[in-house]
Amino acid sequence: MQSDITFQTVLRAHPLTFHSTWGLFSPKEIDEGTRFLLEEIKVNPTDSILDLGCGYGPLGIALGKETSGAVHMVDKDFVAVEYTEENAKLNGLKNFKVYLSNGLSHVPALAKFDLIVSNLPAKPGKELYEKMLDDCLSHLSPGGRVYFVTIAGLREYIKRTFKEKFGNYTKLKEAKGYTCALAINRV
Fold first, then answer.
1. E strand or H helix at 165
2. CA 20 to 30 Å from 24, out of 4, 33, 51, 126?
């Protein structure tokens, strides 16, 4: 691996160590949006989780410490996938799978999740968001939840699109230029 950046932090009361590198999002510390989202997510003890756009793994790893269900973490960057794999092992995560995927394109077709989480990147464009949300709905168990944190500029778009795709939208928290949103698969 390249020269690592290593730091320790506490997420959801779990002391964790992360290795990262330049070129990954927020390589030296957990970004505010991720911390903001982690404060709002409710995890059930057996939830299966998908961390969409995992970076070096903070969402999936922190949440994975609270469930016996499978944790899948995907990213379109192979370097992010390598670091997530290393960080999951380093932090003692047991039931996890990390793989390269552009959105949910390589998530197994029959995989279903109780919880899908993402610190949504700001720049991919609405076409990719539409595809991701369609894919999230097809991979969400009945009663499953989607939690996204977005920058303020995407707030209205996510509200409108969650209502369109899932039939519901809950703004959980808004502050510091971020919005945490929840949609539930009521099928």
1. helix 155-166
2. 126
Q: How many CB atoms lie within 10 A of CB 134?
A: 13
For 47-57, give one letter per residue: b (16+ CB within 10 A) or e. Answer: bbbbbbbbbbb
Q: Nearest Cα to 119, choosing from 9, 19, 41?
A: 41
Q: How confident is the model at residue 116 (pLDDT cuts 50, 70, 90)?
A: very high
Contact 67, 44 (CB under 8 A): yes
Q: Check pLDDT > 70 for residue 127.
A: yes
Amino acid at 3: S
The average confidence (pLDDT) of the chain is 93
Q: How far, in Å, CA of 49 to CA of 64, rounded?
A: 8
Rg of the chain (C-alpha set): 15
CB 171 within 8 A of CB 179: yes
Give residue 123's pLDDT band: very low, low, confident or very high (50, 70, 90).
confident
User: By CB neighbour count within 10 A (0-12 exposed, 13-18 middle, 19+ buried), where does 153 fall?
Assistant: exposed
Q: What's CA 115's distance to the chain center, in Å?
A: 9
